[in-house]
Each structure stands twice: as structure tokens, then as C-alpha cells.
Amino acid sequence: MKATDILIEEHHVILKALDCMEKILEEAENTGTLNAVAVSEWIDFIKHFADHCHHGKEEKKFFPMMEESGVPREGGPIGCMLSEHEFGRNCVRQMKEVFESASQGNATALKKFANSADEFILMLRGHITKENNVLFMIAEQFLDKNQKETLYQEFKKVDQEFGKCHQHYFGVIQKLCEDYRVPFLNANQFHEILV
């Protein structure tokens, strides 16, 4: 198992969360209101699992090691990834600003929430594709065996510091998938993230 494999497994769960939000938005379009409980759980997942834990690993461990190995930040893939992380955070802030009104049936707030959610989903799917198919391939070329092992151990340490982060948020998304009839992950898609 490699550090990038951990990130890829986390991406599988994040992509399922995006699928769930699409279903939540469909439901909101049909009912005129957001499911406050589902959205609250989803935002909590994005804030803590996707951003704090997953993006935290990338920003504090992975990207700096890539830079040390010669991959440029400015004008390169790392700068692009960091910019997209900030774009995503801004989308989530916008969703949170109108969440309460949207969940009470305010049509204007619901439209703003849906627009921000759509932008977030579109960006993050593309972002994950770029990381999985481009950035992680670059890492294979630039990082040596010792760096890869160090990164893997650093990721495991982060996960230990988060305690039951993976298990808790994995369960949150599994339940949202059940509630919104989104096919969940196969067992072979998550070896590391539940350890």
C-alpha cells in the first residue's frame, strides 16, 4: 500500500458523497426544501473528512514533499490543486450561508445553495480525476522509495490523530447512500481507510 492509495480510497468515499448531494438536490427541487439533517451531515463530512483530514494530508504532507522533490508549486499541478481546494472551501462557505433559509423553503436561498453545490461537485470531480490520473503519476516519478514510505507513515499518523475519523465518516456516507439509493463502495475500494 502506498500513500497515494490512501488518498485514492478517500477519493472513492468523497465521490460517493458528491453522488449523494446530487440526489439531495434532486429531492430539494421536487419538494422546494432541503433535507436539513442530510445536508448537515454532508457538510460536516466535507468539512472534517474531505477538507480537514484528506486535504490536510495533501497540503501539509504530500504537496510539500512533492515540492522538495522538484515539482513546482507555481505554474504547476500543486498550485492548481491548492487553488481548487480554496475554490471548494468558498463553495462550501456559500452553501453554509444559505443552508438554514434553504432548509426552511426559501426559494432564493435554495437556488443559491444548489448553484454553489453544483459548482462544488463539478470542480471536485474534475479535481479528483486530475489527482488520481496526473498528480499521483508524477509522484511515482519524483518521490523515491524512502519518501514514499515516509509519506505513507505520515498519513497513517494523521489518521491515528483523527481517531475514528475514517470509520465515522465512512458510516455517514454509507447511510446517506442507503437513504438516497446511491450504490455504495465495493469492499476492494477501501482497504486502508477503515484501519
How would you briefly describe this protein structure?
By secondary structure, the protein is mainly alpha-helical. It contains six helices and no strands. The mean pLDDT is 92.
Kindly describe this structure.
With 195 residues, the protein is an all-alpha fold. Helices cover 81% and strands 0% of the residues. It contains 6 helices and no strands. Helix 2 crosses helix 6 (165-179) and helix 3 (77-103) packs antiparallel against helix 4. The radius of gyration is 17 Å and the shape is elongated. The two termini are 12 Å apart.
Fold topology:
Elements: H1 3-31, H2 36-68, H3 77-103, H4 107-142, H5 145-161, H6 165-179
Helix pairs in contact: 1-2, 1-4, 1-6, 2-3, 2-5, 2-6, 3-4
Key traits:
195 residues, single chain
Low-pLDDT residue spans: none
Largest sheet: none
The value of Rg in angstroms is: 17 Å
SSE order: HHHHHH
Distance between the termini: 12 Å
Specify the number of helices: 6
| Percent of sequence in beta strands | under 5%
Helical content (DSSP H or I, runs of 4+): over 70%
Mean pLDDT: 92
- Can you tell me the overall shape? elongated
What is the strand tally? 0
Sheet/helix structural class: mainly alpha
